[in-house]
């Protein structure tokens, strides 16, 4: 399965629209948003896609946004999402709470950890855990998203054209 990883949209629809267009040819089987979603307009763009999201430190109206997203069949996992996709154990959190990240690293039960928050992409390993931040679609130079093939473990960072 190919995952699409996005983060830190901060209610900016145009970069997300562009990222989704760039990701579409890869035909992702699942989309993960690593937090700092913004508002309903971002959720509208994710509607119809197999997707899950976590909240970030700037997601203020969580209760109403969660109801809105769930009405559109988007899985909202609050501060921590635990997924089992293609036989891989995946944790998703925004990255602003280091206690969550430290617990995930101590547990040693996950294959992947996806975070956002820093607006800087990274790909790190901690034992069997691969920790990936796809970068950000707002307040970042360059703006980035990513794909990850869970079978080949191949990560591809995708830069949005500057504009």
Task: Record the SSE blueprint.
Blueprint (H helix, E strand, L loop, with lengths): L1 E5 L6 H11 L6 E4 L6 H7 L4 E3 L8 H10 L3 E2 L4 E5 L2 E5 L5 H10 L4 E3 L7 E5 L2 E5 L10 E6 L4 E6 L4
Parallel strand pairs: 1-2, 2-3, 3-4, 6-7, 7-9
Antiparallel strand pairs: 1-10, 5-6, 8-9, 10-11
Please characterize this protein's 3D structure.
- There is one protein chain.
- This protein is of the alpha/beta class and 163 residues long.
- It has one domain: Metallo-dependent phosphatases (Purple Acid Phosphatase, chain A, domain 2, 4-Layer Sandwich), CATH 3.60.21.10.
- The chain has helices spanning 13-23, 40-46, 62-71, 98-107, and strands spanning 2-6, 30-33, 51-53, 75-76, 81-85, 88-92, 112-114, 122-126, 129-133, 144-149, 154-159.
- The strands form 2 sheets. It has a 6-stranded mixed beta sheet, with helices on one face.
- Helix 3 (62-71) links the parallel strand 3 and strand 4 (75-76).
- The N and C termini lie far apart (31 Å).
- The model has no long low-confidence stretch (mean pLDDT 97).
Strand fraction equals 25-35%
**Low-pLDDT segments, ≥5 res:** none
Q: How would the global form be characterised?
A: globular
Range of helix content = 10-25%
The biggest sheet, with number of strands, parallel, antiparallel or mixed sense and barrel status, is:
6 strands, mixed
Total of helices: 4
Q: What is the H level of CATH, i.e. the homologous superfamily?
A: Metallo-dependent phosphatases
What Rg is obtained from the alpha carbons, in whole angstroms?
14 Å
In CATH, the architecture is: 4-Layer Sandwich
- Succession of helices and strands: EHEHEHEEEHEEEEE
Class from helix and strand fractions = alpha/beta
Strand order of the largest sheet: 4-3-2-1-10-11
How many structural domains can be distinguished in the coordinates?
1
Q: What is the CATH fold-level name?
A: Purple Acid Phosphatase, chain A, domain 2
At the first level of CATH, the class is Alpha Beta
Distance between the termini: 31 Å
């Amino acid at each position: 399965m190919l995952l699409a990883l996005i983060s830190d949209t901060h209610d900016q629809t145009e970069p997300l629209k562009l990222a989704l267009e760039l990701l579409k040819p890869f035909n992702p089987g699942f989309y993960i948003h690593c937090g700092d979603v913004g508002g309903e307009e971002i959720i509208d763009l994710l509607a119809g896609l197999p997707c899950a999201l976590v909240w970030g430190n700037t997601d203020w109206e969580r209760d109403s946004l969660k109801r809105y997203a769930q009405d559109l069949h988007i899985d909202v996992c609050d501060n921590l999402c635990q997924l089992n996709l293609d036989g891989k154990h995946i944790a998703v959190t925004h990255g602003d709470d280091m206690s969550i990240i430290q617990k995930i690293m101590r547990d040693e039960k996950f294959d992947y950890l996806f975070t956002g928050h820093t607006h800087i992409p990274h790909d790190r390993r901690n034992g069997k855990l691969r920790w990936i931040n796809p970068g950000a679609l707002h307040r970042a130079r360059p703006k980035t998203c990513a794909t990850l093939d869970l079978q080949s473990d191949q990560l591809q960072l995708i830069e949005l054209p500057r504009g």
